[in-house]
Amino acid sequence: MIENNKKNTEFTLLPGRKDDPLAKEVSEYLKKELAPVDFIRFRGKGSLGGETKQLIEQNLRGKFVYIIWSILNTNDELFQIFQLISTVKRTGKASHAVMVMPDYPYGRQDKSHARRECISARLVGDLFEAAGLDHIITMTLHSEQIEGFFRSVDHLKDVPLMADYFSDRYPGICEKIGLDPDQNNFVVMAPDEGGVRHAEEFGRNVSVWNGQMAFAMQQRDRGALHKKEILAVVGDVKDKIVAIPDDILASGSTLFNAAEAAKHSGAAHVIGFCAHALGFDKLAEDNSVSKTFGEALAESSLDELIVTDSRPDFVEETLADDNTKSNVSIISIVPYLAEAIRRDLQGYTIKEMIRGTNIKDLYFEKHRAGT
After folding, report:
1. Sequence-distant (≥ 6) Cβ neighbours of residue 122 within 8 angstroms
2. What is the dihedral of CA 133, 137, 143, 145, to 10 degrees?
3. What residue ranges of the chain have pLDDT lower than 70?
4. pLDDT of residue 8
5. 3-state class of 243 per DSSP?
6. d(CA 20, CA 39)
7. Phi and psi at residue 2, to the nearest 5°
8. 342, 30 contact by CB (below 8 A)
9. CATH code for 159-332?
10. Cα(339)–Cα(361) distance, integer angstroms
11. Where are the domains of the chain?
């Protein structure tokens, strides 16, 4: 690992929101305390109701400042983030403001599907720049074109970490379900046509992959946000361990549909992989909860779901719910983000981080399904 004394030593870590678990864990990993920030929300109605401001209780002048933000409530927190960036640069006189946010807000709104529709991912990038942000460190964007929505971005990928974790566990999974790990029993499957490139990248990073791929042809119901229909499975998954990597999991419909299609096509074991897990409950027409995410996951054809801790709220809910706790494994990206901060601070190339670092030093298992 890179030491902390090669280039810049004057840096500050700030949380992106009050009591941000991810910011706290990264700061502990770096052995650098978070600067105290007073997050203030004004009470009242009308124009002042709900207004916010932040007071940073540490000298920032001339420093590199890293704002570590894991999203809980996107819209509610975004304006606070813009305020925080402006405070860092305009009144704090920091030399460099960097946003470390594994889950990019509005990342799924990266293009227009119809006329008169906002490309919100670009708008967020514009607002970050207007606030004074110098650089973004993020992970597994919904589409790589988002990199062009901001002038300076480091785009980390979850794939090398997930693939390494799966490679280590592959022999044990084979033994559990009665397959020979030395045979060609592994297929990587894209959950839809748009995920083929991501799935192929995942496969290339798995030690046992021999090029076997499949994908599920899904058609979205334009009248429903989280409803898709499987049309066909392309590729041979019969009697195979099938890995389905995806970037974002909201209601889970994409992964659940793909897993069901794989099982119907004869798959022996299906594992879903997701960088950013939100876990929305299923709503009835009257907006009441008809099925919790944990219940939907337990009823799905997924034998296991493997996610990162980019969304600490999902981690907390997972460990508190027997349904999700028994079906979800979690790997922590805290070392990954910490190493990215070190490299940015010291002038090293973040894109070379995977090649220049033992991958196992960049993550750890936080929870294994069933334990």
Report:
1. 110, 146, 149
2. 50
3. 1-9, 46-48, 218-231, 283-289
4. 54
5. strand
6. 12
7. -80, 135
8. yes
9. 3.40.50.2020
10. 9
11. 11-156, 159-332
Tally of CB atoms within 10 A around 210:
10
Query: 216, 192 in Cβ contact below 8 A?
Result: yes
Phi–psi pair at 351, nearest 5 degrees: -65, -20
Token pair in block for residue 299:
């009823």
With beta carbons less than 8 A apart as the criterion, state whether 68 and 25 touch. no
Answer yes or no: are the C-beta atoms of 41 and 52 closer than 8 Å: yes
Name the strand (E) or helix (H) holding 196.
helix 196-204
- Residue burial 12-44, b: 16+ Cβ < 10 Å; e: rest: bbbbbbeebbbbbbbbeebebebbebebeeeee
The span from the CA of 320 to the CA of 300, in Å, is: 19
Cα 230 to Cα 301: distance, rounded to the nearest angstrom: 14
- Identify residue 20 by its one-letter amino acid code: D
Any idea which architecture 11-156 has in CATH? 3-Layer(aba) Sandwich (3.40)
0.70 exceeded by pTM: yes
What's the pLDDT score for residue 60?
95
Q: Rounded to 5 degrees, what angle do the CA atoms 197, 202, 207 make?
A: 140
